[in-house]
Write a structure and sequence with these properties.
Layout: E1 2-5, E2 8-12, E3 17-21, E4 31-36, E5 39-44, E6 53-55, H1 57-68
Antiparallel strand pairs: 1-2, 2-3, 4-5, 5-6
Length: 76
């Protein structure tokens, strides 16, 4: 199931709602994210049954803030 929600795509699985940027061009180089247990879980959109990486709320918030403010090398 896929529906656009403000520049994010919602992908619903039996456990969580995973979000993927609508800027994703479908080239397989995407990351999906979901909230689980107070942390943001991320996964490779090509391997939805593979490993995930968890980030604390503070770490994820700082990461998103830096992306939005372009404070990361190589991010324009």
């Amino acid at each position: 199931m896929k529906e656009e929600t403000s520049r994010m795509y919602r992908v619903t699985t039996h456990r969580n709602i995973w979000l993927k940027s609508s800027y994703s061009s479908g080239n397989g180089q995407c990351v999906e994210a979901t909230l689980q247990g107070g942390a943001t879980q991320t996964r490779d959109s090509k391997d939805t049954h593979g490993a995930t990486i968890a980030f604390s709320k503070a770490t994820w918030t700082q990461f998103i803030s830096r992306i939005r403010g372009s404070h990361l090398p190589g991010i324009y």
